């Protein structure tokens, strides 16, 4: 089987995922994903789509990550893996969709407005 690639995004993070048949090795930016994502919760987020399909040891996954923080990066990887798995086997889409992995989270940081300390926060009002 040839290599399949997919793109996952979340906030400012972009994950390019390359998936191929293998033994279950996940590499992120040249490092093992357990080394890259130190927290167990983030490691769990990355492997969620594979564990739902019972495919944790079927594929080798290589990821190029760019931008964002660790949480956004982990969720971008999850979306990328999900999209790649759907390309491989379109029948698994219903299972992944019911878990909520197929939908891209559209929330982005709102820009800071001029004359304000943050996007919506205002300076303290002084009557006198």
The CATH class is identified as Alpha Beta
The biggest sheet amounts to: 5 strands, mixed
CATH topology term: Ribosomal Protein S5, domain 2
Number of domains: 1
Distance between the termini: 74 Å
Range of helix content? 25-40%
> What is the H/E string?
EEEEHHEHH
Uncertain segments are: none
Output mean pLDDT.
93
Given helix and strand content, the structural type is: alpha+beta
User: Can you tell me the CATH architecture?
Assistant: 2-Layer Sandwich
Shape summary: elongated
What is the helix tally? 4
Residues in β-strands, percent: 15-25%
Radius of gyration: 18 Å
Q: How many E-type strands? A: 5
Major sheet strand order = 1-2-5-3-4
Layout of helices and strands, plus pairs?
Blueprint: E1 4-10, E2 13-21, E3 26-28, E4 31-32, H1 33-36, H2 40-52, E5 59-66, H3 70-88, H4 93-99
Helix pairs in contact: 2-3
The gist of it:
The protein has 128 residues and is α+β, with helices and mostly antiparallel strands. It has helices at 33-36, 40-52, 70-88, 93-99; strands at residues 4-10, 13-21, 26-28, 31-32, 59-66.
Task: Note down, in words, how this protein is organized.
The model has no long low-confidence stretch (mean pLDDT 93). This protein has a 5-stranded mixed beta sheet with strand order 1-2-5-3-4. The chain is elongated and about 70 Å long. It is built from 4 helices and 5 strands; from the N terminus they run ββββααβαα. The protein is an alpha+beta fold. It has a single domain, classed as 2-Layer Sandwich (Ribosomal Protein S5, domain 2).
């Amino acid at each position: 089987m040839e290599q399949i690639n997919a793109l996952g995004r979340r906030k400012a993070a972009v994950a390019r995922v390359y998936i191929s048949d293998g033994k279950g090795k996940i590499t992120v930016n040249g490092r093992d994903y357990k080394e890259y994502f130190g927290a167990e919760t983030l490691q769990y987020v990355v492997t969620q789509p594979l564990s739902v399909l019972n495919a944790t040891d079927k594929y080798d996954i290589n990821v190029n990550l760019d931008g964002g923080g660790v949480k956004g990066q982990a969720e971008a990887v999850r979306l990328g893996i999900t999209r790649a798995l759907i390309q491989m086997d379109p029948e698994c889409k219903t299972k992944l969709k019911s878990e909520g992995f197929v939908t891209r989270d559209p929330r982005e940081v709102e820009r800071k407005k001029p004359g304000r300390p943050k996007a919506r926060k205002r300076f303290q009002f002084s009557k006198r």
